Amino acid sequence: MNRLFGSVRSRATLGATLVVAVALFVTGAAVLQALRSNLTAEAGTQAEGTARAVASELAARTPYDQLSGLGSKSGPVQVVDEDGNLVAASEDLQRISGTVTDRVEPRRSSPSPSASASPSQSAPAREDDEDEDDEDEDDEDDDEDTETPRSQSTPEDEESEPSLAPGETGRQTTFSSGAATMDDDTADYRFAAVDVQTHDRGLLTVSAGAPLAAEHSAVRTALTVMLIGFPLLAALVAGMTWVVTGRALRPVAGIREEMAAITASEDLKRRVPEPGTHDEIARLARTTNETLAALETSVERQRRFVADASHELRSPIASLRTQLEVAAAHPELLDLDGAVEDTVRLQHLAADLLLLARLDAGERPVDARVDLAALAREEAAGRTGVTVDAESAEVAGSRGQLARLLGNLLDNGRRHARETVSVSVRREGDRAVLAVADDGDGVTEADRERIFERFVRLDAARSRDDGGAGLGLALARDVAIRHGGTLTAGAAPSGGALFELRLPLA
Fold first, then answer.
1. Residue range 426-431: average pLDDT?
2. Which residues sit opposite 390 in a β-bridge?
3. What's the angle, vertex CA 299, arms to CA 293 and CA 301, rounded to 5?
4. Exposed (0-12), middle (13-18) or buried (19+): which is 310, by Cβ within 10 Å?
5. Is the pLDDT of residue 145 over 70?
6. Count of C-beta atoms within a 10 Å radius of residue 497
7. What angle do CA 121, 126, 127 make, to 5 degrees?
8. 210, 247, 4: which is closest to 98 by C-alpha?
9. Hey, do 268-363 and 365-506 end up sharing a CATH topology, with the first three levels equal?
């Protein structure tokens, strides 16, 4: 299991699948909720329309048995008076829940005037219409002193909605969900309840229901589609992610195999394959090859350094051994000055090699203030033919390393100068410039960079006793670079060589 999910391909596939699964779950839940809410609201609107239609008929004094909304083809409808008595209900209504009352058989407290009036009584009533109209006009004149008779209502009703005038239907609609059985068919309904103030029957509440079968069917269909489609979609995403990540990571496997082969063979000339794409993996391959090239150069440089150092150390050691062996056999032939000179030369060479090794290892110079003018005067003291013209210029770095740099430049200048070597220190902007010039033959333009390579001596005929080991200038440039500066070679005004060291001011 750990090996399976230890690969980037497996983790990417699992992560993408989980993200898609969570997104599908949240989206599906939101869609189902929105669908259920919309269909329920639509059923509530339908139920409200039926309830208000029945309430309008009641406000127009329509008898209970003549209400159009109580037919068998309509949904469940109940009419309840202010005492909670069911006064009218739909035909074939057998059971109901979720409304004001669960009664299905109407129980009228008093017969409707319009319904109980006989035909013989209705004629005189029409004869008295003119008298009633006159009384209505008198009542309108007395509106300021009298109130319109209204049905009694509870305090809760008065807080929820203002009292209704006769023939007025309430603006507020109360919604609820429940179930009803009509003609042996039980179903879920969305009920809407509306109040109406009648002229002769008081305050009535009409509850009408609209079926939720469409809502249930749509939700079940959508849920079925989601339960079948979402797993298939998640599986499709997993498969596509597996294939795409496999193709994307295929070059990584080639890079890993080639790196393993390079490690096993220690052949730094080999390179990892670079894909033809322009993505991160291609940049990784190019960076890896650049690192291998730099490593190859570094290793080759170290090999040449070790070989050259061994060659350079062999000569003074062999010379010193020869002199000691001769002195042991013939003490009178001991060349003490030569032995001391070879020993000093060997000591300087060992010190240069040690400093180069430390610089190659990335050793940073100590952060101290060094006055180049004072340092130039100290290094020039005791050397013949060296002149100094310096202004104060402080830099940050190692005094010992900078002294070695300046000493190597002075030694090189004295070795090639005819008479004099001049040292100058000046400021140029935010840089300190230290220049060492001699009046010798100078350095040709083609060799001005080559002389900074290690163990390079331009005069091949010169003996090692007269020349150096070819490390002085290379060491000087490395020290300059480590101090954030540069060391370049050029032509002096007198025709000799000119070496300029530029370091940032402290």
1. 91
2. 425
3. 100
4. exposed
5. no
6. 25
7. 100
8. 210
9. no
Q: SS3 of 441, please?
A: coil
- Structural class in CATH, domain 268-363: mainly alpha
Structure-block tokens of residue 499 = 């070496």
pLDDT of residue 6: 62
Quick one: 147 exposed, middle or buried, by C-beta within 10 A (0-12, 13-18, 19+)?
exposed
Query: What mean pLDDT is predicted for residues 83-99?
Result: 90
State yes or no: pLDDT of 165 exceeds 90.
Answer: no
pLDDT value at position 442? 86
Q: Which two tokens stand for residue 438?
A: 């001699």
CB 397 within 8 A of CB 366: yes
Domain ranges of the chain: 11-112+129-219, 268-363, 365-506
Angstrom distances, CA of residue 364 to CA of 94, 160, 360, 402, 468 = 98, 85, 10, 13, 27
**Residue from 486, 451, 476, 474 nearest 305 by CA:** 474
Among 494, 482, 325, 322, residue whose Cα is nearest residue 419: 494
To the nearest 10 degrees (0 to 180), the angle between helices 399-416 and 372-380 is 50
Spatial contact of 406 and 461, defined as CB atoms under 8 Å apart? no
DSSP secondary structure letters along 27-80: HHHHHHHHHHHHHHHHHHHHHHHHHHHHHHHHHTT--GGG-GGGSTTS--EEEE
* Residues with Cβ within 8 Å of residue 367, at least 6 apart in sequence: 396, 397
CATH topology of domain 365-506: Heat Shock Protein 90 (3.30.565)
Is residue 506 classed as helix, strand or coil in its secondary structure?
coil
| pLDDT value, residue 79 | 93
In whole angstroms, give the CA distance from residue 395 to residue 163. 97
Whether pTM > 0.70 for this model: the answer is no
489/134 Cα distance (integer angstroms): 130
Res 459: pLDDT? 56
Residue corresponding to tokens 């069911």: 86
pLDDT in tens, 109-131: 544 444 334 333 333 333 344 34
Higher pLDDT, 169 or 356: 169
Burial of 250 (0-12, 13-18, 19+ CB in 10 A): exposed
Q: Which amino acid is at 278?
A: H
Return the sign of the alpha-carbon dihedral for residues 27, 31, 34, 37.
Answer: negative
Over range 193-199, report the average pLDDT: 92
Beta pairing class for 93-97 and 174-182? antiparallel
Beta pairing class for 77-81 and 93-97: unpaired
Would you say 502 and 435 are in contact if contact means Cβ atoms under 8 Å apart? no
**Token pair 């339960």 in the structure block, residue:** 227
Tell the residue number behind the tokens 């109901």, with chain if given: 96
- At position 490, the amino acid (one-letter code) is G
